[in-house]
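Sequence in, structure out. Go.
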Amino acid sequence: MDALTDLYATQPFWIWLALAAVILAVELSTGSGWLLWPAAAAGAMSGLTLLVPNNLALHLALFAGLTILTTVTARRYLPRDISGGGPDINDTMTRLVGARGQAAGAFDNGQGRVHVDGKEWDAVSDDALVSGQAIVVEAVTGGASLKVRAAT
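Output:
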């Protein structure tokens, strides 16, 4: 036990940094989101050991307080759902719904092409659209085709 207290007395910075790395590694392997904040608190403690007197009990109390503070703050202010509200976070087509763009040319029989989000898409519309007219994407139809309407 004396060896551990001697090690902590001489190297508290590196011990807290190592603890932060271990907790972060466990967080990355589990993906729970709960261990990120204790890892951050342990990382902060490595810096605080340079400012706070070398007292293990004080350091453990500060670590506990920082862990609680960072966890509560993160859970309160960070969004719980980052999926974007769509059915699939990787489906870029559904994200186009509501996007604005312009007609790339005149629509013939309700079909034409539009520029949306820096790309040109096949589109269908019930409106008679002319080249350069502002549009809004209403839906994504089969394949890579968009249903659009004239923007108001």
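Check: The beta strands are 100-103, 111-116, 119-125, 134-141, 145-150. The longest helix spans residues 56-77.
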